[in-house]
Every structure is written in structure tokens, then in C-alpha cells.
Amino acid sequence: MSSSTTKDSNRVVRVASGQGFWGDWLDAPRRQVEGGQVDYLMLDYLAEVTMSILQKQKERDPQMGYARDFIGAMESVLPAVVERGVKVIANAGGVNPVACAHAVHDVARKAGAAGKLKIGVVTGDDLLPRIDELIASGHPLTHMETGAPLSTVRDRVLSANAYIGSTPIVEALARGANVVVTGRSTDTALTMAPLRHEFGWAADDWDRLAAGIIAGHIIECGAQCSGGNCLYDWRNIPDLANIGYPIVEATADGTFTVVKHPNTGGRINVPSVTEQCVYEMGDPNSYITPDVVADFTTIHLEDDGENRVRVFGIKGRPATDKLKVSIAYRSGYKAVGTLLYAWPDALEKAQLADRVLRERLDAMGLKFDKVLTEFVGVSSAHGPLTPHVGEAPEVQLRIGVRSTERSSVERFTREIAPLVLNGPPSVTGFAGGRPKVEEIVAYWPALVDKTVVQTRVEVLS
Fold it and tell me: Rounded to an integer, what distance in angstroms lies between the CA atom of residue 161 and that of residue 326?
């Protein structure tokens, strides 16, 4: 029998999503805590590329390496945390959770509320200092798609973080934290942890844990399940400028309802929630997380009133013995330049400019791993599948190169502007100077035994 049966089966716990990625709507956290009753505010900041960006920031400044938008979010929700008891869970710690927690503490101190915050800090996901030790002890961190060992790019690795689950977050909450900051936790764990904590779900209560994971998956991308980026009936989604972010209203048996605050825009219905369910789903029978393997084919959705979708029937299986590791490494340089060609014959002009530029680059003997051209307005989104729709009134030539040699990329950036006068006619919209040379950060997914990743929880007060 699940330990959740000792709890009030009618009690509802509300977890609100306030950020779906680093760069999401800055007003969303405040709107979520001020718009109605919520118990927890979940803020998801991290993506694979984000970790490498944060690692580079930390290299420049040891006090950085976390999502700084989170500090502003905490300033905006601090009254709700200290006065109404709303708890905040965020993976904003990036590659420096401790520094992030201290920054939050400084915000509270300046507001005279330091004594009212207990900040839980979860660490242990950062494997960068241990890579050589892991490889030497028989953990090659093999690329999940190519099968190559990490040793082939070891000298270029920027960051390496294991995806941790809900257990350390639950521990932090159990120790009294009302703000929990993690590094690379799974997105879904940020929602599952408070439900597991509140309802006392056991670590092997697979169906309820799977329900918590699905709840997290549905709201992890913020307003993407409440009308944002929604294909179904998108023309008629009301008041997107005032869109409401989603909230999960959960009960101890694992059923939950996806809602949003009254008097907000957007829409929550079965189609909008379904679109989010299949987002980044992978194998629908086996959605693997550190806590549980959830079966998406068992999800049942039904409308439960206006802007309410009930979710139930979810099944889960035991978790695997591995954790996914997100590794980023340096992989050369790139630059992208654009020119806009106007009607008539816009596409022909852009195609000629592309040929001219490529011939000039070839004549210089420059070394590129890839030269990619897109004709924006004609075929950049769907390539050869683009239907013929007649002559385009304007076409943007977008051409990019990548190379292990920075000098080749730099020379490319000098060859775009001359086409304004010595290439095909009717170029417009060229401004901003030469394209910028950027370092390429590539993604290396790997698996590692759970036994080698030891998380730690510290509570600051």
C-alpha cells in the first residue's frame, strides 16, 4: 500500500509553471503567484546548450554560471514566498548552484527577509572535474548515437552534467527549504518533487511517480501547453498578449488537472495538452527519467470544464540503472551572413549571389567543414518539400560556414558585404556590419552508472 494513503486523499497541491526556458517571459513568475492560489512555483531554465553557455560564463567569472534571470524572478515573487508560503523550485543553478543560492540570499537580505528563507542547494550533477577519473575507472561516456568514446574529444570538453531526479529536491523540502536551487536536474523533476514530498509517494510507487513525471512534462515548457506555440485552432486562441501559464492541481492518487488562472489569455484543452505531451517524447512506451519510466500510451485526457484538462490512468515502470549525461565540447567556428533581394526575380538573384560567393571562397582555397545556404521566404523551413507558390516578392539569402580554422571563417565574413555592389542587383536590408565569428559548441549525449553520481543537499538560512 502506498504511503500516500495516509494523507488526505481529497487534498489538492498546486504547482505552477513560471518559466519554460532561460529567456522566457519575465513577468510570468510574478503573474503566477499573484493571479491565484498556488503552493509551488516551478521555474525551468536549462537546456543542453544552456549548460555550455553557463560554463563559459563561469570560466570568465567564478561567481557566475547560473541563470541570472532567476534572481529578478525571486525579487518579484519574494512577497508571496515569505507572506503566503509559496515554495520555489528551480534548476537555475546551472553549473554554479551555490553561487546562485547566495545571490538569492542577498536579494532576501536586501529586502529584510533573509530570516524567512531557507534555501536548499542541490549539487553533485557536475561531472566536469571527474571526467578523467570516470574514464580511467571504466566509464567511457560513449556517445549515445555514434558510439565514440568521450576520449576522442576530451581536450575540448566544456561541461558535463548528469541529469538528476527528484530525490535530492524532496530531501531539501523535507529539511524545510522553501526555495530549492539545483543544477542539471531533469525538467520533470521540478514538478514531481513537490508532489512526491507532499503526498509521501514511495520511491517504488511507479504509477504515481509516472503521473508526477507526466505532470512535469506537460508544464515544463510554460505556456506551450496553454495556447502558446499551439497549432490547433491557433487563429482563435484568445488574448495571447495576456496568456496564462499552466498550473497542475494534483491529488494523492496521481490524477491531476491542468489549469490556468482566471482572467488570463490562452487556452487549455485536450488538443493543447496533447501537443505538449508529444513534444520531445521519444519512445511513447518508455519515457525514461532518473525516477521512473513513464508509459505515455497510458495517458488519458478529458476536458474538465473551461480551461481545465483532467489527466489520469498513467502507468510507470522501474527506473533504469543509468543517468543521462549532457556534455558540451568545442567544435570549431561558424559565421552566418544574410542579404535580402527584392522583386522582380528575387530568388534568381539570391541564387546567383550564392554561386558567386561560393566561387570566390573556392578560389581562395579556404577550408570549410560545411557551407550551408538557405533561401528564406522560399525554402528555408521545409527545403525540397516546399510547395511551389509562385514568385516570391523578396528572398533573404542566408549563408553560413563552419570550420576548425578560425581564419577561414573570418575571411568568409569579409566576402558578404562586397556583393552589395559587385553582385546581383536589388540588395536591401544590409546593415550591422560583418557577420560575427562564433565558437561552435557541440552536444555529446552519454550514459553513466547511477552509482557514480552522488548528489548533495545543503540548506542555507
Answer: 5
